[in-house]
Design a protein that fits this description.
- The N terminus is likely disordered.
- This protein has 30 helices and 15 strands.
- It folds into six domains: about 80 residues, Arc Repressor Mutant, subunit A (Orthogonal Bundle); about 60 residues, Orthogonal Bundle (Arc Repressor Mutant, subunit A); about 140 residues, PTS-regulatory domain, PRD, CATH 1.10.1790; about 110 residues, PTS-regulatory domain, PRD (Orthogonal Bundle); about 80 residues, Rossmann fold, CATH 3.40.50; about 170 residues, Mannitol-specific EII, Chain A (3-Layer(aba) Sandwich), CATH 3.40.930.
- It is of the alpha/beta class.
- The chain is globular and about 90 Å long.
- About 30% of the residues are buried.
Length: about 725
């Protein structure tokens, strides 16, 4: 075949293929074995997989991937030999990703005492001037976050300017961003064993050296620290220990190069008063002895900051509350109080939440106050999976800003707090709310029994009602049975909430299920309002305000009016959406001038987003307008289908008009109605096919429920 036009592979990919070809038996090799062998992360190996598969494919070799088992080549020894020869001819090009280039350039800039010539970067990275200039745009933005300036002087070279504190912060950040925490641990733990290989730490950014820290320094720092920790019997987590080693090693390296950190007098004096200062002094003495250097007082302050910012407490027999603990209790309680309001849940019985918050906020508020970086590897995941909790916490975080006079609270910190509140909700909801679920698999028996046993172990509040076969799912029947969830081993076409998992229930499945259960439990609680009522009782009966009663009366009048003026239009003849909008704008208009204004408002709204609602196949014409003083609703049925947007047509439309300055209750009622549109099939069917009376009945029950809830709130205050 024409084997000359092949895509090139990188040297790392070549090494991986060689490992496969030199494997005499067809025993699968796992991805993590490959990663260990080549001293790279498993993520990197996985990234390379598609190129490797392509290369083997193009050359007609049989590559086998068994999930959870490993990879191997299903070839004879002869053809494996042939692969090895092919690889020797293969043009290998060393190419770096943009990320790798960025790390390489940054690590050089952050450590080089003199300017670096551009030529050095072109040559090392084999890139063009254009690419380098592009890379510098990113690098400049990155350095800017640490208030470091990138300077490029023709004839001199490229260098950075910034305070020592900022440069160190940038270095620590670069190290953390370049390796997973696990790699860092292995690195620190292994330094002793492979110190003879080379004098630098390899953070295997694809076997590139990030010459940020000298290996021998790390080894000595680790020794000194371990000594001090034993001496004062300190309980410290692995990740705090790693962090400390990295920080102090950097400090030592900078000190040896004559770079000293500066610190304002009053900050130093404040630091001298806290517990951790004594410990930092001990560490500094030990380090000074080990390296035969004099550690200046500012550096001791720097170490103190780091100790205070990492999660550790000196274990003392009688750990009595110091002032900052009282303050932390105060802030944590305030947060919980605000969260109760925000989430409409009662957190008061969750003592663990309070403890967790106090323990977490101590170090982290200190870090924020001192402008240190907070890392949260789960940030993105929390923002998507726990979006509601994250957004809620973001709303109440102002209390911390006020109490501590802080301008900005980083997203990563909001995410940590969201985790704490999220787990509390799970603990809380999961105890109170029983969720009825069905297990479902292709046939309905075998695997599902197995699945049910595992589910019982994991989720105490899951009531597994039965197993069903994926072939015949009768949603209506299941709804009558009160089924909240179907846990299935195959994709389903059902309108009941369902989640697809593997019959073996791996970790990811458990997370998925926990997430769904949390949402269902939350919905159930809010629908039955058990907890909301409990919360209302908890708040002391506030005296009712006369104005509130007046407002309530006005609202009652408005609701009745809204209800009376509901319109149902049958057999409306329109050819297109234009005409439909035109027709609708006259329904509630006072005169033709007012109709024109409504029409304009409707069109403006339609330009923002299509009025077609998927799933219910209705056109929803709605807008805010000054032409109405109360909400107005009309349902419209057309004589024929009309194109609503490029791809959707329907015969049914709902017109909703909202006053420009809508009152809160008007918005609430609207969202109640919209909720019914989305969740209540009977309501939708009635709008489409029911007669005027039935439609009014449906609206009536929605409005009455809404009214009764409002009435409860008021009457509780009056009692």
């Amino acid at each position: 075949g024409d084997k000359m036009k092949r895509k090139k592979i990188s040297s790392r990919q070549k090494e991986i293929i060689l490992m496969l070809a030199q494997n005499p038996s067809n025993k699968p090799i796992t991805i993590s074995e490959v990663a260990q062998e080549l001293n790279i992360s498993t993520r990197t190996v996985l990234r390379d997989m598609s190129s490797i598969e392509n290369w083997l494919d193009e050359n007609d070799f049989k590559f086998v991937k068994k999930p959870g088992v490993g990879i191997y080549l299903d070839e004879t020894l002869d053809s494996k030999q042939f692969i090895i020869e092919l690889l020797q001819e293969e043009k290998i090009e060393k190419s770096y990703t943009k990320e790798e280039r960025k790390r390489f350039i940054l690590s050089n800039l952050l450590t080089s005492p003199e300017p670096i010539k551009s030529y050095y970067f072109y040559k090392s990275l084999k890139i063009s001037e254009g690419t380098l200039n592009n890379d510098f745009v990113d690098i400049e933005a990155w350095l800017d976050k640490f208030s470091i300036n990138l300077i490029r002087k023709p004839g001199t070279g490229i260098y950075i300017e910034g305070s020592e504190k900022d440069i160190r912060a940038a270095q620590v950040n670069l190290i953390y961003n370049s390796c997973e925490e696990q790699d860092l641990m292995n690195m620190v733990k292994n330094v002793g064993n492979n110190i003879q290989n080379s004098s630098v730490i390899e953070i295997s950014s694809e076997n590139r050296l990030l010459n940020l820290i000298d290996k021998s320094i790390i080894k000595k720092v680790e020794n000194s620290l371990s000594k001090v920790i034993k001496e004062i019997n300190l309980k410290i987590s692995d990740s705090s220990f790693i962090g400390l080693v990295v920080h102090i090693s950097l400090a030592v390296q900078r000190l040896k190069n004559g770079e000293r950190i500066s610190m304002e007098e009053d900050v130093l004096n404040e630091l001298k008063c806290i517990d951790q200062f004594k410990m930092a002094t001990k560490i500094a003495e030990q380090i000074g002895e080990e390296f035969d250097i004099n550690v200046p007082i500012e550096e001791i302050g720097y170490i103190t900051m780091h100790l205070r910012g990492s999660k550790m407490r000196l274990e003392t027999k009688d750990h009595n509350f110091t002032l900052d603990d009282v303050e932390l209790m105060n802030i944590s309680k305030k947060l919980i109080e605000l969260a109760e309001d925000e989430f409409k849940l009662d957190f008061s019985n969750d003592t663990r939440l309070l403890n967790d918050l106090v323990t977490h906020l101590g170090p982290s508020l200190c870090r924020i106050k001192m402008g240190m970086d907070i890392r949260n590897p789960l940030l993105e995941q929390i923002k998507t999976e726990y979006k509601d909790v994250y957004d809620g916490v973001a709303n109440i975080i102002y209390i911390i800003k006020e109490k501590l006079d802080i301008d900005e609270i980083p997203e990563s910190e909001i995410a940590y707090l969201a985790m704490h509140f999220g787990s509390s909700m799970e603990r809380n909801l999961m105890e109170d709310v029983e969720i009825n679920a069905m297990a479902c698999c292709p046939t309905g028996i075998g695997t599902s029994r197995f699945l049910i046993t595992k589910l019982h172990k994991k989720f105490s509040n899951l009531n597994m009602v039965d197993t069903i076969s994926a072939i015949n799912i009768d949603d209506e029947y299941l709804r009558q049975q009160g089924i909240d969830l179907i846990i299935s081993t195959v994709e389903l076409d059902s309108s009941i909430r369902n989640v697809v998992v593997s019959p073996l229930l791996n970790l990811e499945d458990v997370t998925k299920i926990r997430h769904v259960l949390r949402n269902i439990a939350k919905d159930k609680v809010f629908k039955n309002d058990i907890r909301a009522e409990r919360l209302e009782e908890k708040k002391e009966k506030k005296l009712v305000d006369k104005n509130e009663v007046m407002d309530f009366m006005t609202m009652s009048g408005n609701l009745v009016e809204f209800f009376k003026l509901l319109e149902v239009h049958e057999d409306v003849d329109c050819d297109d959406i234009e005409e439909l909008v035109n027709y609708s704008s006259f329904i509630f208009a006072n005169d033709s001038k007012s109709a024109l204004k409504i029409q304009r408002d409707l069109k403006r709204r339609i330009n923002i987003s299509t009025p077609f609602v998927d799933g219910i196949e209705i056109a929803l014409l709605h807008c805010m307008t000054e032409e109405v003083k109360n909400i107005r609703y009309a349902s419209i049925r057309l004589t024929k289908e009309v194109m609503i947007d490029e791809e959707n047509k329907t015969r049914y439309a709902l017109l909703m008009l909202i006053p420009k300055q809508a009152k809160p209750y008007q918005r609430e009622l609207l969202s109640k109605i919209s909720e019914n549109l989305i969740e209540n099939d009977d309501f939708v069917n009635c709008i489409k096919y029911g007669n005027k009376e039935e439609i009014k009945e449906n609206f009536k029950s929605i409005v009455l429920d809404f009214y009764i809830n409002k009435m409860k709130v008021i009457s509780q205050k009056i009692d």
